[in-house]
């Protein structure tokens, strides 16, 4: 079995680290513990340390809600320069995040369950909730975040309260709101490893007695976001050699809070994000497989081979991303996203996101509240790159092959209405409705054959194989109702059900096919139109939970939950002759072609039992849960490197079971807080599942699901005369795991350890602070996903592996007044 070796050896052995982490949990269990998030400002009054979450569409304390939640506060996010979703992984052991790719653009997995980052047609199995609005496209994972009040990670199915795309959990971000008094804050940092700087800040306060405002913005410029290997055929527009790929991000947000009356409030958030980068494939390296040979790019049935520039060292943090060869990037088809900028073969990416949310709360009476949450998203993302991934420089062939310029344009409108009660008696309820209208255009010019190495199109002069467009419209409507019964002062029973009806209509058009390909029987002609392809499904998702407050500080709960994620229509079909069936006069033939592009809905069923306990005057907390869930028809997409084709299908069944533990301790030492978490996950396929490799994965572990994962951290602040010294540290451990779901011998990522740390000095009242921050100080690289490299020669076995970022070291100055 091919295994991945870490870039640098850990200071501590993995067995030693696991023993330390397990030992710390056991020790804290006797001492009494606190939630990781409560490490922030722990020396303040108990009220300051009460963490609230919105796990059931209402504000509840973390210790009382019968849901397994990890809450990460703003202090922790700022201390460790956490401004990307992928950065949160070190605080949530059961979480895996992949950023990048030409499809959805990102992936979030929990407890071994997630959806592919290479398909824009999949909704995420882990719902992304931004200020109460569910964003269906994972492209927003690339956008990052800033000025955040809190991040909540809800584990397990959450379909009752969050509906679609929450079959495995919820990743929720709550941005900061206007303050009651005027304040201004700013920060500037420089990062030495990637040569990047970040500047940002906010101003917040009351415009009147009833209206508050908060305006925040941040700009980030990273010069060496991806470092290229020496000799890579990559160039600047002026023709000079380029040794890295850069990235810039701008985030802007305006928030208005209006409270004109005691029984009414309105909160409006307007966000704009601009992301620019030098290509889509990011931190993707080449693993040379079992044969240890950097395989060539094998084109035109062996008529052309481009030698690889890969050095078979996938752990040095240097990448081999070549520009597109001139012969195949000199003329993009009219209307394609890369026209005309990609005609020089230099990859680029641009993403524009506008997101707005309006939340209204109206107290109908003393006991009933009507809430409305309206959301609007407009996303326009272009990612150009060359998916041969490698290619040596030569006078006749400068760069690589397999280039494409996918464009993802998404417009989404959502509306949720809720009525919730607040009776004094034993019974309370919530009823609501949700509606989503979403339109996705996923269009791309591609080189799956690279025919222009023979010649450009003699009719148009285009150097791409085809230009394909696919539009998918989604309408989702759901109704939900929940109720709670306080059977006694200590015992509460709650439950409910959500009904969802979802419809997707997709159509495929192919404006252009290279004349050399359309002349063969294998491909369709330019001008193809499929007509509508429809998918419909509906589902009932019930949930029941029981909570027993044994003491004011010990909460025992159990829950039965179900989850649902709608199926849909694949958007990765090639313009091959198989699509000609859409024009057949026989309805049965047309239906069969359409059915071949559809994938089924994904469902989940199971439950968990947990205990949330606090001791020693609530200075210590231990939260533990045991879970067991079965996922049927898990939506999977793999890449077939031999046919250069994505394969979309449903895995028959996956079972995920295990234990989550979170702890923390506000120690007797002034200003010192300890925290951590441990996750044991046993996620594997539990029914026959034959993949594109022809192998049955029944009994094999799921991808991105380490048996053990953990983190342990500390925060310490110490007054020193007129100054305050701060020290912070976090250690993350992950066991080994598969990185793909295609064969019994898929690449395994070895276990690894990474360490974050920070030291700061500043004003005790927070007026200013200077910090030195280290992220991933051990400079570990680990693989999130893997798959066959396109255009392999016979017997070739190179893999494309997507990785995390390496070590980052920041110096930061901040102020607040």
How are the SSEs ordered, and which strands pair?
Blueprint: E1 3-4, H1 14-31, E2 52-53, E3 60-61, E4 69-73, H2 74-79, E5 95-99, E6 106-110, E7 126-130, E8 133-135, E9 148-155, H3 159-162, E10 169-175, E11 183-191, E12 196-206, E13 211-227, E14 244-261, E15 264-277, E16 284-287, E17 297-299, E18 304-306, H4 326-329, E19 349-363, E20 368-383, E21 385-386, E22 403-404, E23 407-421, E24 427-446, E25 466-486, E26 491-513, H5 515-518, E27 528-529, E28 533-551, E29 554-565, E30 568-569, H6 587-596, E31 598-599, E32 602-615, E33 620-640, E34 645-666, E35 672-685, E36 708-720, E37 723-734, E38 737-738, E39 748-749, E40 752-762, E41 768-775, E42 783-788, E43 799-803, E44 808-816
Parallel strand pairs: 1-39, 7-10
Antiparallel strand pairs: 2-3, 4-9, 5-6, 7-8, 9-10, 11-12, 11-44, 12-13, 13-14, 14-15, 15-19, 16-43, 17-18, 19-20, 20-23, 21-22, 23-24, 24-25, 25-26, 26-27, 26-28, 28-29, 29-32, 30-31, 32-33, 33-34, 34-35, 35-36, 36-37, 37-40, 38-39, 40-41, 41-44, 42-43
Describe this structure in words.
The chain is mainly beta. It has a single domain, classed as Maltoporin, Chain A. The protein contains 6 helices and 44 strands. The strands form 9 sheets. The chain has a 22-stranded antiparallel barrel. Strand 7 and strand 8 form a beta hairpin. The longest helix has 18 residues. The protein is globular and about 75 Å long. The termini are far apart. The relative contact order is 0.15.
